[in-house]
Amino acid sequence: xxxxxxxGANRGIGKAIVKAILxxxxxxxxxxxxxxxxxxxxxxxELTAETPGFHDRLNVVPLDxxxxxxxxxxxxIVRQEFLPEGRLFGLVNNAGIGYPDSELEAVVDVKVYGMHxxxxxxxxxxxxxxxxxxxxxxxxxxNFVSKCSTEYQSILTDPGLLWPDLDQLMRKAIESKSxxxxxxxxxxxxxxxxxSKACANALTLIQAREHAPLKINACTxxxxxxxxxxPMAEARGMSPQEMGMKSVEHGTIAPLKLLDEALETSxxxxxxxxxxxxxxEYRAPGAPEYRP
Length: 292
Hints:
Elements: E1 2-6, H1 12-24, E2 28-34, H2 37-50, E3 58-62, H3 68-82, E4 88-93, H4 104-122, E5 132-136, H5 140-146, H6 150-156, H7 163-175, H8 179-184, H9 192-210, E6 215-219, H10 230-235, H11 253-260, E7 269-270, E8 276-277
Parallel strand pairs: 1-2, 1-4, 2-3, 4-5, 5-6, 6-7
Antiparallel strand pairs: 7-8
Helix pairs in contact: 3-4, 4-9, 5-9
């Protein structure tokens, strides 16, 4: 049985990914990672109420990706309780906060540092050749990079980028204290959300190289209606559909491909239509696949 851990899995896209995995793979078991354990169990109750057969293939682990001690504790629980027969097949780094413009430090703490620590900690439980890591990022990343100076575009798309250099860049951005200051230094439009997603995509390049031959890739789920995005529509007096938001089920297309299908390589970023996309500019769903 394949065991897959999904972070931020108690609601929204994370919960939809859990459901899609269980529906499409009868041999899969999913560990629901939730910052608040009670909410993880509530998500399991909701999923099993819809499909009672899911009950024996769901587990919950308390997991706050901003806490090293929480990640370490989750690692021990997964290793000792949920992997008695083998390795962790998949890790979906879905946990996220802040849309569209929360405090930069809080956003990168979850979406970049949390992602970094999760892979570094759980890689030893994964089978090098067959296991998968899926980093849920966003098209806001390439959009952000397209507005950066040439210097920062080069850094954020460099396949040879090192973690200390990315770490230094994020700390420099945090210290800039304002969106205006980020913009003035060449960091795009200064959006904390866009910056965090660009860094998460860059991190995927680093992880794919450092943890080879693990298959580690990133993808955007698309512009999905969730608790994080719904307020955007409300603020404009529009419905989520009028804003172009799609259902959480649509947001599972790319993540499931990266868990399921044969992949050419590692360290790539995929659009919501599950086709490879560039890190430096937006590729619309349905447009030709990116081939550098």
